[in-house]
Amino acid sequence: RRHELEPPVPLGPTAAEEPPSRPVPNAVAPAGRRSGGDLAETREDSAIRAVAEPAGRAAAGPRTVPGRPTVAGTFVALDEEDLDRYEPERPPSAIISLQTWILAAALMAIGVGTWYFLRPLSADDLYERIVRRTEDKTIESFLFEQHDIDEFLSRFPADPRAEHLRRFRREIELYTRERRLMSPAKGRLGGEGLLPIERAYMRAVHAAQADPEEGMARLQALIDLYSDRDNQSGPTGECLELARRQIERLRRQLEGVAADTLSELEVRLQRAEERRATEPAKARAIWNAVIQLYQDKSWAADMVRRARDGLASTPAPDADPKPKP
Fold first, then answer.
1. Who contacts 7 (Cβ-Cβ below 8 Å, separation ≥6)?
2. 234 pLDDT exceeds 70?
3. Which residues contact 1 (CB under 8 A, 6 or more apart)?
4. pTM for the whole structure
């Protein structure tokens, strides 16, 4: 019964059991809770301080303890000179730089120049270039311009100027044919793999090197043998044209040789006439030499006739004189 009359035990801790709290400077205890000048903090004051203290610390900033490293998320005090200087914002750079534009322009110029120099020439430009480079009309210049000549004839076959360039092309074909026939390998092999007209031409040219007149006779015989053929194109036509040109060249060559030889023969025949009376043997030797060397030369026929007349009119030294009647 005594226990029933005892007052109920409070659920929370009593004031004597509460832990002492730190005195808060300049804190004023609420009225009615001061006892003997000591500042005692009630549970309500403790809760209010617990809520208000973090906000105050956030405003004042975190404390730094000298000698201890700071951790991430804490405030570090810096001196004024350690702060970054303020730099104004730079305007945004261009998307394509000036160097890129210059490189693009240079590449474009190279491309345009390459297209200009590699583009096909017109008929007028191509023909003028060919004519300008072949002014000397030599086979070397024709060979140098062979590519342009073939290009003009293939691109502009109906052009009136194409006939002029076909003559250049003909000269190139004849020169190529002659070089092939007269190559040292063909001469050593005896003309193997050649046509009969090609072998005849090759032998006539070789004979002309030793005896121009003999070569001319062979070349003329070749022309007489094949000139009546209907097909004058290809190797046959080229060999006939080469033979005609060789004859003309040999004729001009012989004209120069004959002029020099005839001049020398004239001097020798005069010397024989001078020695007819005093040295008939020497005079007859000169006449015999002229006949022996040049009797088969048509251009020396007059000299040979004069030598024979001298022999006929000058008896040999060892011949018996005719008895007087």
1. none
2. yes
3. none
4. 0.54
